[in-house]
Amino acid sequence: MNITLITVGKLKEKYLKDAVDEYTKRLSRYCRLNIIEVQDEKTPDNASPKDEEIIKDREGKRILKHINNNMYIVAMDLKGNMLASEKFSEFIGELALKGSSNITFIIGGSLGISREILHRADYKLCFSKMTFPHQLFRVMLLEQIYRGFRILKGEPYHK
């Protein structure tokens, strides 16, 4: 199985890079992982709702350049479906059974994901109604993907 993360913005903090490296290593037993970072847009403090849409659209166009027709797209969206870890594991397993071996997760920038990307998404997933920094969220998503594979394989993992 191929898992791709398309994320807006680059990791800056060493401790987050180290965590991503650790989960990348752990996931190598279960899938091929590819992480694509696209440039984020600077958001002025006094940005209007229209300015924010323009920023999301620019970031969305950068994301679209990396999306292929054979990818099953999961957009991380506050309005998406919330799944427990076990259900998330089942979700990954069912996609594999249906022949979707290229799953792509999209993490937007600080303003979220463009309408165009949300429209293109096959599934919208929400981890929490809380807001997290997208750099930290990358680590959280990788951890849950790892946990999902462990559950799927019937391997022990701390609950």
Would you kindly provide a written description of the structure presented here, covering whatever features stand out?
- This protein is α/β, with parallel strands linked by helices.
- It has one domain (2-152): Alpha/beta knot (3-Layer(aba) Sandwich), CATH 3.40.1280.
- The chain is built from five helices and five strands, in the order E-H-E-H-E-H-E-H-E-H.
- It has helices at residues 14-27, 49-64, 85-97, 115-120, 134-152, and strands at residues 2-8, 32-38, 72-81, 102-107, 123-125.
- Strands 2-1-4-3-5 form a five-stranded parallel sheet.
- Strand 1, helix 1 and strand 2 (32-38) form a beta-alpha-beta unit.
- It starts with a strand and ends in a 7-residue tail after the last helix.
Top keywords for this entry?
Alpha/beta knot; EC 2.1.1.177; RlmH-like; Alpha/beta_knot_MTases; alpha/beta; transferase; tRNA_m1G_MTases_N; 5-stranded parallel beta sheet; globular; 159 residues
- Helical/strand content category: alpha/beta
Would you identify the regions where 5 or more consecutive residues have pLDDT less than 50?
A: none
Shape: globular
Which class in CATH terms? Answer: Alpha Beta
- Using the CA coordinates, give the radius of gyration: 15 Å
| Main pleated sheet | 5 strands, parallel
Total beta strand runs: 5
- Could you tell me the CATH topology label: Alpha/beta knot
